[in-house]
């Protein structure tokens, strides 16, 4: 099964309730600069978080010093719903002026226990987080760098299509992450990512506007682009 179709089947059904609305009385919002830490690896898991605007990356630094990004967090995404007392990964903003809401964990858990609707919605957003990580496994399973970059673009198109006005007006999607971020997400070099994007452009599968905006011309070409 292609990654794009797997994405559509694996993502939880959107619910009419937004848990952020119910939790708004607990929210503490903070604006972050690009590259600024929201929390570090092994930081006490004392809050739940939600991206209000902007974007963030969740990552770890391996023993050899290489950064490994495991997730990109976009507006509306919850994160930090840890089952342990400390966070396994660090999170940083990747867009200047990223706004994040933080909810005290103990009070949020008590509210979820007392409110069945909120408890159900928290389970939905947790399932969405798991689905994103499962999608990354599928992306890394693609053969060759061209297949991985193609699958990544399909994932971002799927996640951003309902959130950005540009995608609705046919202008493509504006990727909030750099090519270095994409490389660390796909476990590739930045040069390899750039070559793959150029190859997809030359094949007529995508159109590049600058370094961040991508318009997908032929979805089927991306789905069948394994090397």
TrEMBL record:
Family annotation (CDD domains): CAP_ED (cd00038), HTH_CRP (cd00092)
Membrane-spanning intervals of the chain: none
InterPro entries: cNMP-bd_dom, cNMP-bd_dom_sf, Env_Response_Regulators, HTH_CRP, RmlC-like_jellyroll, WH-like_DNA-bd_sf, WH_DNA-bd_sf
Domain Cyclic nucleotide-binding: from-to ranges: 32-80
GO cellular component: cytosol
Keyword DNA-binding: yes
Span list, region Disordered: 1-22
One Pfam family hit: cNMP_binding
Keywords: DNA-binding, Plasmid, Transcription, Transcription regulation
PROSITE patterns hit by this protein: CNMP_BINDING_3, HTH_CRP_2
Domain of life where this protein originates: Bacteria
Ranges of residues in domain HTH crp-type: 143-220
A molecular function (GO) term: DNA-binding transcription factor activity
Descriptive protein name: Crp/Fnr family transcriptional regulator
Organism classification: Bacteria, Pseudomonadati, Pseudomonadota, Alphaproteobacteria, Rhodospirillales
């Amino acid at each position: 099964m292609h990654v794009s179709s797997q994405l559509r089947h694996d993502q939880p059904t959107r619910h009419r309730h937004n848990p952020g609305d119910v939790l708004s009385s607990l929210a503490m919002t903070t604006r972050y600069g690009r590259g600024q830490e929201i929390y570090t690896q092994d930081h006490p898991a004392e809050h739940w978080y939600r991206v209000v605007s902007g974007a963030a990356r969740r990552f770890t630094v391996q023993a050899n010093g290489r950064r490994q990004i495991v997730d990109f967090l976009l507006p509306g995404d919850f994160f930090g719903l840890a089952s342990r007392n400390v966070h396994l990964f660090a999170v940083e903003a990747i867009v200047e002026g990223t706004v994040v809401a933080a909810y005290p964990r103990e009070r949020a858990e008590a509210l979820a226990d007392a409110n069945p609707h909120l408890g159900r919605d928290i389970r939905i957003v947790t399932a969405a987080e798991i689905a994103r990580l499962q999608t990354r496994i599928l992306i890394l399973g693609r053969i060759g760098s061209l297949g991985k970059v193609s699958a990544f673009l399909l994932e971002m198109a799927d996640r951003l299509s309902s959130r950005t006005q540009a995608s609705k007006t046919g202008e493509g999607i504006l990727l909030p992450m750099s090519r270095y971020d994409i490389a660390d997400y796909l476990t590739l070099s930045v040069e390899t990512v750039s070559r793959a994007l150029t190859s997809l452009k030359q094949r007529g599968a995508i159109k590049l506007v600058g370094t961040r905006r991508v318009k997908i011309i032929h979805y089927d070409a991306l789905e069948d682009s394994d090397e």
